[in-house]
Design goal:
This protein is mainly α and about 475 residues long. Helices cover about 45% and strands about 10% of the residues. It binds glutamic acid (GLU).
């Protein structure tokens, strides 16, 4: 392989908490780039404005930085292929969509949401799912002109071949062939003028000279669409390599209901960065048959994409804890103390706690006992049924807790106003008695009936920890 040419990328969407899956994909891309003297590019795929969360981009960068997975080019590291935020590349996406229109590979589609819904209903009744019926593919130039004159909203779609097959090649899976008739005339530019994931991803990968697309398995079904786009543009495809999905213990795709998925949560819960890197390195890959503990440098040295095995790797908390214990024991006295001071009893965290605790303690020796929940990861509930208020069922309580975690997921700026508003709105929506509602949340998030003010405590605890406690309590009840 020409080592000068290796350029890989990670392309996270800033839509929520920084995900362990993002770190996993980054780690493998990073090792591959380092191994071949190539470059890792961080591209922020922020074109889905409805799901965009402003804080998320910074949180992604902070978490990857924590793990020591440094990219070479990105929004904060200028290179020759910027901008590195997709939303700042709109003119490029539009230019290339126009190019496809001019070359006859794409067309304007003026179908209204109403028409598309009716079409879907009819397909459903007939028991078929043939996607968009290509109504606008056959409009005459004159019709298109008139609709533009009338300022009819439109999207731009790719003309897919309707016959034959398309083969994609995955480095780990070999050839995968699909019938072209299965492929929809995908939307390239949405009615708001923003590109779809497919168009932006392909245009950007090409313009950023990406040699290998190493991403999660869930994108494999998009790859034929991408290959079609490469063909329509007449561009060379990158090498595709889809990493196996991380899974919960029950083998289902990793989900926050069963496993915390936020990197910030693990950092808060006291997992060391070297543990997390090592642990993710064991997901579908191994250094050798015997050695489970290895460093990032070891991994880079031995790394070969072809060694990745496809059996679904399990993100097992017990294993993670065991591994962390191994690393913890190896810390020197200085490192141990340093970690406690900079990650657990951090100055700024203690300062945030002060106003909440100061009226509730007479002596410093009460601090640890009364406020331990501010430092714990998981809280123990020896009798989870005690979390269920009188007159409510466990199922109602589970739904309340999961629903609250979900609304908290939507909060972008985690501050007192936002948390108070969510608590109030959700209470009104649910119609629970305030006493039952607040006490259940208090117990679940602080483990105490007599915690400092609830909303204030939740703000300090942080969104990851709060949501995880809500979800874990729900899991314990079910
Ligand atoms: N924006 C996609 C994501 O959120 C990128 C997928 C890809 O790597 O192509 O993961």
């Amino acid at each position: 392989m020409n080592s000068q040419k290796v350029r890989v990328r990670i392309a996270p969407s800033p839509t929520g908490d920084p995900h362990v899956g993002t770190a996993y994909v980054t780690l493998f891309n990073y090792c591959f780039a380092k191994k071949h003297g190539g470059k890792l590019i961080l591209r922020i795929e922020d074109t889905d404005q409805t799901r965009y969360r402003a804080q998320s981009e910074q949180a992604i960068m902070d978490s990857l930085g924590w793990l020591g997975l440094q990219w070479d080019e990105g929004p904060d590291r200028p290179g020759n292929h910027g901008p590195y935020r997709q939303s700042e590349r709109r003119s490029l996406h539009q230019y290339w969509a126009q190019h496809l229109l001019d070359a006859g590979h794409a067309y304007y589609c003026f179908c209204t949401a109403h028409r598309l819904e009716k079409m879907r209903q009819e397909q459903k009744e007939k028991g078929v799912n043939s996607g968009y019926d290509r109504h606008c593919r056959h409009l005459s130039a004159q019709e298109v002109h008139t609709l533009h004159q009338e300022k009819t909203p439109y999207v731009i779609r790719l003309k897919m071949p309707t016959e034959g097959t398309t083969t994609i090649h995955d480095l780990l899976r070999g050839d995968i062939t699909i019938e072209n008739s299965q492929l929809d005339d995908q939307v390239l530019i949405k009615s708001d003028g923003f590109p779809t994931y497919h168009l932006a991803n392909v245009v950007d990968d090409h313009l950023m000279e990406i040699s290998h697309v190493i991403r999660a398995e869930e994108w494999i079904s998009s790859t034929p669409k991408h290959v079609m786009l490469y063909k329509a543009f007449g561009w060379k495809e990158p090498v595709f390599c889809h990493l196996p999905l991380l899974r919960n213990n029950d083998k289902s795709k990793i989900s926050k209901r069963k496993n915390p998925t936020s990197l910030s949560f693990y950092r808060r819960a006291g997992i060391l960065s070297q543990t997390m890197v090592n642990f993710l390195g064991l997901m579908g890959w191994s250094l050798n048959a015997t050695q489970e503990i290895f460093s990032l440098e070891d991994m880079i040295r031995a790394f070969d994409l072809k060694d990745i095995h496809l059996g679904g790797p399990i993100f097992d908390q017990k294993k993670l804890n065991w591994l962390n214990n191994q690393y913890l024991q190896k810390l020197s006295d200085d490192q141990f103390v340093h970690h406690l001071k900079t990650e657990v009893f951090k100055d700024d965290y203690l300062r945030q706690l002060r106003p909440l605790v100061v009226e509730r303690m007479d002596r410093f020796d009460q601090f640890v006992d009364k406020f331990a929940f501010f430092f714990n990861g998981e809280l123990e509930f020896p009798d989870p049924t005690a979390l269920v208020p009188q007159g409510k069922t466990p199922q109602e309580t589970i739904e309340m807790l999961l629903g609250l975690a979900e609304v908290f997921d939507e909060v972008d700026a985690w501050n007192l106003d936002a948390v108070k508003k969510v608590l109030e709105d959700y209470k009104t929506k649910l119609g629970w008695k305030p006493k039952d509602y607040f006490m259940t949340i208090r117990l679940v998030t602080t483990g105490r009936k007599d915690s400092p003010p609830l909303a204030e405590s939740l703000v300090v605890l942080g969104s990851d920890m709060v949501k995880d406690r809500l979800r874990r309590a729900a899991a314990k009840l079910s």
